[in-house]
Amino acid sequence: MVVMQKFDLTDLDFRALKTLRLVYDLGSFTRAAELLGQNQSTVSYTIERLRGVFGDVLFVRQGRGVAPTARCDEIVAGVRAILDQVTALAEPPDFDPLRTEADVILSCNHYERAVILPAVLRHLRREAPGIRLKILQSRTDGHQQLRRGECDLLLSPVHGAGKQAFRRLVLEDGYVCIADPDNPVCGGTLTADAYAAARHVLISYEGAWKPGYLELAEAQGVTAEVIVDLPSSGELGRLIAGTDLVATVPRLLAATLGDAVARLPAPFDSRLKVYQYWTTRTNLSPIHRWFRDLVSEEARKIARAGR
């Protein structure tokens, strides 16, 4: 039983609240201590102190980690808002891209790095040379990275940011099939039957996300014979070159491969939608607002040029 102590603001310093949020996000005292560079006993002491303040156990053991109580869910939602608002207040009120030095952390995957990021970097070097950009591999963990404050912006087609995140559509793409130019499938129209008869490279994203074209293919009763299963689309062009394999990829990504592959209309009319996600922590920041607008602007140019 936890007895609620007399409320004392000194028990609610920002360091303690950040610890609470991190334990909540990671579901582990040990992992939180590692990221904070502290001993686990220090993290445990902080949580024990907050248990007395809030009059709740906050976490209960679950397997090798911990799970939050219902009351903890409510508390952490408020803590996120407080920490994000204070972070926003610390931002300088004025922002001059040419004179500002700042760090921005972007989480994304190979598609966004290959299709969107080159134009964004060229824009940054011209107009904001003092901004340093760190890129994280999001896989399907981008929303968790965003929630934990590990990144400032997420570019992803994967949904799931929750109520604490803002979202903006930045790019919509279609799918094409790519193959070696000497592949016999390039000699005609790639019908659904020809697609099913071909040998395929599948980008499976380690089973964590399913592209829409696969759902359409399954709905039409088309099953592709998968010869190679890849976790991501990196090096795809080189892997297909000189083989009889076919891959289904977003059209704008295929365009980055140049003449190394032939591009064929896919027999399924599926769309890929890429969104920006961010939280209240950076929502009002002049620097991050400018960067989000930059990404949207460059993505629109890419989409128009690729039509």
UniProtKB/TrEMBL annotation:
Q: Which residues form the signal peptide?
A: none
Q: Which organism is it from?
A: Polymorphum gilvum (strain LMG 25793 / CGMCC 1.9160 / SL003B-26A1)
Entry-linked PROSITE patterns = HTH_LYSR (PS50931)
Q: Which InterPro entries match?
A: LysR-type_TF, LysR_HTH_N, LysR_subst-bd, WH-like_DNA-bd_sf, WH_DNA-bd_sf, YidZ_PBP2
Q: Which UniProt keywords apply?
A: DNA-binding, Transcription, Transcription regulation
Q: Protein name, please? A: Probable transcription regulator protein
Q: Which family does it belong to?
A: Belongs to the LysR transcriptional regulatory family.
Give the Gene Ontology MF terms in alphabetical order: DNA binding; DNA-binding transcription factor activity
**Location of the HTH lysR-type domain:** 12-69
What CDD domains does this protein's entry cite?
Answer: PBP2_Nitroaromatics_like
